[in-house]
Design a protein that fits this description.
Layout lengths: L1 H11 L14 E5 L2 E4 L4 E4 L2 H4 L8 H13 L10 H14 L4 E6 L2 H16 L3 E5 L8 H5 L15 E5 L14 H16 L7 E4 L15 H11 L3 E5 L26 E4 L10 E6 H4 L14 H16 L2 H20 L5 E7 L2 E6 L9 H13 L2 E2 L1 E3 L5 E5 L7 H17 L9
Parallel strand pairs: 3-13, 5-6, 5-7, 7-8, 8-9
Antiparallel strand pairs: 1-2, 2-3, 4-10, 9-10, 11-12, 12-15, 14-15
Helix pairs in contact: 3-10, 4-10, 7-8, 11-13, 12-13
C-alpha cells in the first residue's frame, strides 16, 4: 500500500518536494509523543511534524476545542468580528513583550515572515534587508530572497536587496576561534561595516536559533548588541520565532529573550507549535509599524475560528502545565545524555541547543567536512529502532535535529536517547566506502 501511495505521490507532486527515508513513511495516527505508520509500526516522535506538534499528538483539550468549534462554525474570514481570534491575539500580545502590540494572523511561518517584510519595508521605505548567514525564513518568493542557506534557496531573484551578516553559527566561520565576548564584538563590527556600504536597510530578520540550518546560534546577547547598532539608525529588528517560540528553548518563552538586554524586537513572527498541527502563523508588531499600511487588507484563512480555537486550547494547556519548564528540565537531561554518547562517536563534531531544540552535527571523522551520508544512515537506523528525528544544515554542515513535543517525559527522553545512541554507534560499524 505504501509503495502504491509513493508511486501516486511521485506522479502528481513536484520532484522537489522532499521525502525522508529510502522507503518513505505514511503516518496514520498519533497519541502523546508517539505516532504509528500504515503498517502498524509505532515510533517515538522526536521531530513533531517539523516542531509543529508542540504539546502532544491527539491532545484531548485541543481535539475537544476543534470538534466543538467545528460544530458551530469553521470559518468566516477577517471581514467579520471573530471572538476566538481576538481572544488569542490578546493573549499573544500580552506574552510577546512588545509594547502596544498588534497581532495579525496568517496560515504559516512563511506567510508571517512575508507579512513582516511587507510591514518593515513599507514603514522604512526601503527594500534592503539584513539577514543572517545560514538562515531559513520560508518558501515564498520574498522569504526565499532573504534565506541564507543555499540548500533552501532555489532562486537568486528577489524583490529585496539582501545583505548577510555574521553570527548565526558560533563554531564555524572566521570568528569561531574567538571567545564569546570577542565573537559578539567581531559580529557587531561586521554589521557596522555592512551598514557603511549600503543605503539604510529596513530591518534585520533573524532566528534566535537557526532551525533548518541545524539548530545553530550565536552567543546569548548577540542580537542585543546588534539591536543597539540598529536602533541608533532606526533599523527594525524582526525576531523569527517560528521554531523558537512558546517555550521550546526551556530557558525562555521566546528565543529573543536570550538577547533581551536592549529590549524586545520591533516585530516577532510565529507559527508551527501554537496550533499543535493546525495552520496558524502570525506577526506581532508595535502598533505604529503594524498600522503603517495605507490600503485595505484582509486574510481569508488567517485567524479562522477553528484554528484559533485550537491555538487557544493549546496555549492554555502549555501554560497551565508549565511545558516551558518541562522543556528546560527534560531537555537538559537529554542534552547531557546525548553529549555523553557523542564523546564516544568520532562522527559527532558537536551536540548543541537548549531545551527541546537540540542539534547533533556530523562530520567525516577527523575532519570538519559535512557527512550527509552518515546523517541519512543515522536517520534510517533511528527509524528502524522506533525513533523519528529530523536533519538539517547549511554551508558544508550536516546536522540531526531533535525536537520532541514539549510534554516529553524523562522515561521517553531516555528511551529516545538510547535508540539514538545505537543509531549513532551503528555508523561506526559500516565500511568506510559506504559512508
Amino acid at each position: 500500500m505504501t509503495k502504491d501511495l509513493l508511486g501516486r505521490h511521485r506522479a502528481v507532486m513536484p520532484d522537489w518536494l522532499a521525502l525522508y527515508y529510502e522507503e518513505p513513511l505514511e503516518i496514520t495516527h498519533g497519541e502523546g509523543r508517539h505516532v504509528w505508520d500504515a503498517a502498524g509500526n509505532r515510533y517515538l516522535d522526536f521531530f513533531g511534524g517539523i516542531l509543529t506538534t508542540m504539546t502532544a499528538h491527539a491532545l484531548p483539550e485541543v481535539t475537544k476545542a476543534v470538534s466543538e468549534q467545528a460544530g458551530r462554525i469553521i470559518h468566516s474570514s477577517t471581514l467579520y468580528l471573530n471572538r476566538p481570534m481576538v481572544e488569542l491575539a490578546e493573549r499573544i500580545a500580552q506574552l510577546s513583550g512588545i509594547p502596544d502590540a498588534r497581532v495579525f494572523f496568517t496560515t504559516s511561518g512563511t506567510e508571517a515572515n512575508d507579512t513582516a517584510l511587507l510591514l518593515a519595508t513599507t514603514y522604512r521605505r526601503s527594500n534592503t534587508v539584513l539577514a543572517m548567514r545560514n538562515s531559513y525564513h520560508g518558501r515564498s518568493f520574498s522569504a526565499v530572497g532573504i534565506t541564507g542557506n543555499r540548500g533552501w534557496s532555489p532562486t537568486s531573484l528577489s524583490p529585496l536587496q539582501t545583505l548577510y551578516v555574521h553570527g548565526g553559527v558560533r563554531t564555524r566561520g572566521p570568528y569561531a576561534s574567538l571567545s564569546d565576548e570577542d565573537f559578539v564584538a567581531a559580529c557587531v563590527d561586521d554589521l557596522k561595516d555592512i551598514l557603511g556600504h549600503t543605503r539604510p536597510p529596513a530591518a534585520l530578520i533573524a532566528e534566535p536559533i537557526q532551525g533548518v540550518g541545524g539548530f545553530t546560534s550565536g552567543p546569548d546577547g548577540l542580537y542585543a548588541a546588534f539591536r543597539e547598532v540598529l536602533a541608533e539608525r532606526g533599523i527594525l529588528w524582526i525576531a523569527d520565532e517560528v521554531q523558537t517560540g512558546w517555550g521550546r528553548t526551556g530557558d525562555h518563552f521566546w528565543g529573543w529573550q536570550a538577547h533581551g538586554r536592549s529590549g524586545p524586537p520591533d516585530m516577532l513572527t510565529f507559527a508551527k507549535g501554537i496550533g499543535n498541527g493546525m495552520s496558524i502563523g502570525g506577526v506581532v508588531a508595535r502598533g505604529e509599524i503594524m498600522n503603517c499600511l495605507d490600503s485595505n487588507s484582509i486574510s481569508t484563512f488567517g485567524g479562522t475560528q477553528i484554528t484559533m480555537a485550537a491555538g487557544l486550547a493549546n496555549l492554555s494547556y502549555l501554560l497551565e502545565h508549565d511545558l516551558q519548564g518541562n522543556a528546560r528540565r527534560v531537555g537538559g537531561l537529554l542534552l547531557e545524555r546525548l553529549r555523553a554518547v557523542a564523546a564516544q562517536v568520532p562522527h559527532v563534531r558537536e551536540v548543541r541547543g537548549r531545551g527541546l531544540m537540540l542539534g547533533i552535527e556530523l562530520t567525516r571523522p577527523g575532519t570538519d567536512e559535512a557527512d550527509p551520508v552518515a546523517a541519512s544512515a543515522v536517520l534510517e537506523a533511528a527509524r528502524e529502532g522506533g525513533l523519528l528525528i529530523g536533519k538539517g544544515g547549511g554551508h558544508n554542515t550536516t546536522s540531526l535535529r531533535v525536537a520532541p513535543p514539549l510534554s516529553l517525559t524523562v522515561a521517553e527522553a531516555e528511551e529516545g536517547a538510547a535508540i539514538l545512541e545505537h543509531a549513532l554507534r551503528s555508523i561506526q560499524q559500516e565500511p568506510a566506502e559506504h559512508l
